[in-house]
Inverse folding.
């Protein structure tokens, strides 16, 4: 069975309930017609429910056979390990699954796909009868995906039931018998794969009205104007495609795509936060060299990362110290000392303008809510002379009211002539905020949407590879 | 305005009890510890509170207090510098050697300080650009400088230094011992560097959250390198005072001094994981160690037992700071 839904639809939560990681608030789980109460992951595993996560739980410097029997070692007298027996059984198992793997191979030296096979073999060895695969193909090449599908077919013949989670529709239609769609944590429907068309699935996934309101977009026309930031050529690694895009003055450029499509990676490489093989950039029509985030800052480009606590803020710092961090020069006196007066004047003003709710600017950012933390990050970049701000998931984990405020703040910035690049996994946000949208799939920009072309169905269609 | 460093928080907010305020300002906590410790010493020994003894303490702590300044900078970035004792020895023997070769005293001292800066540069480069763990790099660097010092001196102290060199370790100006003046100067500069100039802000940011600091446009590697240079430099200053006090270049001087420097930093409330701390706290920490050493000596406690007590106090200090952190997160 396939499980489908957009980012944040509740797939992972459902999976965690099925494997006993979370407890269901209501409802019950039946196994072989019997109602069961899952007490935890271990209990689920004992009942024969297994899961393959995107990150593996293998021990890298052990052999394949040792990993397969990890925690359930076959023992001989006095508790010593029966390596011969484990090796023999591993080889039998791998043969049965049709996987060609050396049981003595070191896991760390295997490809991602092979590691996944070891993980599956490990699950099967512990008598799993029901296996959940959470986006197993997202890190695989097409060839490896095909090998995984062969393995899944072999498992099916062995009577193992599977739930296969994927964003890629063509994979669902190839391997699944039935498809179930989730949206906003709700069960939408379950149909035999053969009866599903691409369009009907997209409609089920998206099918909500955009009921949130967004600030009005500006009427913009960029024909003939020089982009503020123009990425002529950007190639992250030898195996990722080369991309190019540009950002104009006063616009919000949305970047949409599935989780793992390489959105954050693309902007991080653009500003030099991550390395790139090829990076050719023009600012205001002039060639610019960016190798580090400092270079980007000097050229007026700032990144507001998706993980505020770990990448955006110094949580042990006060609001004031965070805000002035990127442009301390601005609050220095002639002795190159930090002027407390200048610093607090600037920060007080930005706190007021950004409507940061706090008892004072000496408050530690750790004590602020997510929305206010994000506003502090915004204030930090407003304290610099940046003209292009890159928001990575600007409202993730932020409540509805604060979300609206952040959106208004973003729009007021572009009205003042700043340019914004916004990565978002929330389709309504992308649609509601963006003046233009780049759709990313497999590290490549597959489509640029403009004005009224921007709608959820179209974005999903390109992002999941249904339309090319 | 207080030294506006990381752990400041909301000390000005009304309605917060004194106890909570002290918890938020670890250097106040340390100060309280110092006061309690001193009171204890006054009670147990009538010789403690004499001016002779107090100035004795001040002189004794000066070397460790100066080294602890560099150590504070390093620990604030989340690193550690175990090589300070060895740097002290090499800078002392370098100065002694240069002077014995007829080099003028001022130049010889510059040579000794340069040695500290160079070793700090090597440490910092290996840690920041080489991405090596600080504890291993500087552990290895406890061997190399001392090895050089031992080869150079053949293992014997270099004595016979010009008499005027005694000024730095034994001299006094207006009745104040020169090492104490040096210590105060170093702390004033360190206070400005860490609390007033951007250096301190950047160092704390790197220690608090390296990735966020990098994305904020801070040259993380530069500051990670610089703190080891500062540490090498202050260790070399300590080397000047030490060799002047001994009036010889002693290749075995400063063995185990890194322990006291780290202890002063930790007792001063600086988070051993970096990102939080205050130079004034380190000064208090160094004083606490001085009072403790002095008091235990006055009480006639065996030096072997003193080591155990010191170790236990350091563990207690780390316990306090880690509990504090856990409460915060």
């Amino acid at each position: 069975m396939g499980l489908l839904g957009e980012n944040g639809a509740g797939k992972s939560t459902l999976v965690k309930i099925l494997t006993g990681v979370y407890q269901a608030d209501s409802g019950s789980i039946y196994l072989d017609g019997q109602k069961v109460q899952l007490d935890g992951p271990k209990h689920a595993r004992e009942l024969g429910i297994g899961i393959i996560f995107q990150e593996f739980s293998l021990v890298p410097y052990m052999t394949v056979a040792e990993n397969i029997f990890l925690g359930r070692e076959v023992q001989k007298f006095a508790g010593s390990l029966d390596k011969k027996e484990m090796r023999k059984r591993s080889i039998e198992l791998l043969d049965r699954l049709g996987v060609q793997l050396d049981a003595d191979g070191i896991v760390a030296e295997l490809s991602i796909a092979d590691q996944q096979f070891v993980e599956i073999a490990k699950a099967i060895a512990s008598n799993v009868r029901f296996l959940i695969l959470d986006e197993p193909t997202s890190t695989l090449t097409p060839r490896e995906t095909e090998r995984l599908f062969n393995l899944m077919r072999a498992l099916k013949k062995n009577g193992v039931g599977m739930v296969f989670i994927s964003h890629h529709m063509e994979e669902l239609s190839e391997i699944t018998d039935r498809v179930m769609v989730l949206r906003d944590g709700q069960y939408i429907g379950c149909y035999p794969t053969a009866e599903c068309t691409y369009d009907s699935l997209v409609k089920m996934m998206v099918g909500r009205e955009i009921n949130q309101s967004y600030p009005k977009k500006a009427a913009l026309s960029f024909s003939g104007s020089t982009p503020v930031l123009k990425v002529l050529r950007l190639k992250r690694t030898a195996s990722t495609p080369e991309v190019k895009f540009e950002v104009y003055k006063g616009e919000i450029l949305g970047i949409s795509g599935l989780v793992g499509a390489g959105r954050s990676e693309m902007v991080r490489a653009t500003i030099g936060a991550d390395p790139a093989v090829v990076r050719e950039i023009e600012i205001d029509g002039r060639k610019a060299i960016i190798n580090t985030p400092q270079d980007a800052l000097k050229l007026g480009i700032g990144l507001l990362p998706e993980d505020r606590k770990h990448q955006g803020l110094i949580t042990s710092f006060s609001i004031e110290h965070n805000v002035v961090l990127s442009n301390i020069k601005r609050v220095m006196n002639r002795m190159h000392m930090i002027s407390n007066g200048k610093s607090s004047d600037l920060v007080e003003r930005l706190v007021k303008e950004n409507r940061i709710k706090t008892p004072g600017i000496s408050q530690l950012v750790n004590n602020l809510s997510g929305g206010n933390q994000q506003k502090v990050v915004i204030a930090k970049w407003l304290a610099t002379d940046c003209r292009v701000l890159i928001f990575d998931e600007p409202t993730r984990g932020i409540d509805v009211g604060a979300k609206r405020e952040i959106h208004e703040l973003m729009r007021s910035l572009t009205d003042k002539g700043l340019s914004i690049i916004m990565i978002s996994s929330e389709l309504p946000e992308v649609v509601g905020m963006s003046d233009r949208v780049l759709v990313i799939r497999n590290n490549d920009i597959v489509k640029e949407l403009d004005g009224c072309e921007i709608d959820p169905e179209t974005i999903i269609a390109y992002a999941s590879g249904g339309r090319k | 305005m207080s030294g506006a460093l990381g752990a400041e928080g909301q000390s000005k907010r009304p309605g917060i009890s004194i106890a909570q305020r002290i918890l938020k300002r670890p250097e106040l906590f340390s100060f309280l510890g110092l006061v309690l410790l001193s009171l204890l010493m006054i009670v147990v020994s009538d010789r403690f509170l004499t001016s002779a003894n107090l100035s004795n303490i001040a002189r004794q702590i000066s070397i460790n207090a100066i080294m602890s300044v560099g150590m504070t900078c390093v620990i604030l970035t989340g690193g550690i510098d175990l090589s300070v004792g060895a740097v002290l020895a090499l800078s002392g023997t370098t100065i002694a050697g240069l002077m014995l070769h007829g080099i003028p005293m001022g130049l010889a001292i510059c040579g000794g300080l340069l040695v500290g800066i160079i070793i700090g540069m090597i440490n910092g480069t290996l840690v920041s650009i080489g991405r090596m763990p600080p504890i291993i790099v500087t552990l290895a660097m406890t061997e190399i400088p001392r090895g050089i010092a031992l080869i150079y001196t053949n293992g014997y102290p270099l004595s016979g230094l010009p008499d005027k060199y005694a000024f730095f370790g034994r001299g006094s100006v207006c009745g104040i011992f020169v090492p104490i003046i040096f210590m105060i100067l170093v702390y004033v500069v360190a206070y400005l560097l860490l609390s007033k100039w951007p250096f301190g802000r950047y160092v704390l940011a790197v220690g608090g959250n390296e990735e966020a600091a990098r994305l904020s446009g801070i040259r993380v590697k530069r500051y990670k390198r610089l703190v080891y240079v500062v540490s090498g430099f202050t260790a070399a200053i300590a080397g000047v005072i030490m060799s002047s006090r001994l009036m010889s270049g002693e290749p075995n001087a400063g063995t185990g001094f890194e322990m006291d420097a780290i202890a002063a930093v930790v007792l001063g409330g600086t988070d051993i994981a970096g990102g939080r701390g205050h130079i004034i706290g380190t000064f208090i920490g160094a004083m606490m160690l001085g009072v403790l050493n002095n008091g235990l000596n006055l009480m006639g406690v065996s030096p072997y037992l003193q080591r155990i007590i010191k170790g236990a106090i350091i563990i207690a200090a780390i316990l306090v700071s880690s509990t504090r952190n856990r409460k915060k997160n």
User: Anything to note?
Assistant: The interface with chain B takes residues 273, 292-294, 296-298, 302-303, 305, 310-318, 321, 324-326, 328, 332, 336-338, 340, 359-360, 362-364, 366-367, 380, 384 of chain A (CB under 8 Å). Residues 22 and 296 of chain A are 42 Å apart (CA to CA). The longest strand of chain A covers residues 186-192. The mean pLDDT of chain A is 85.
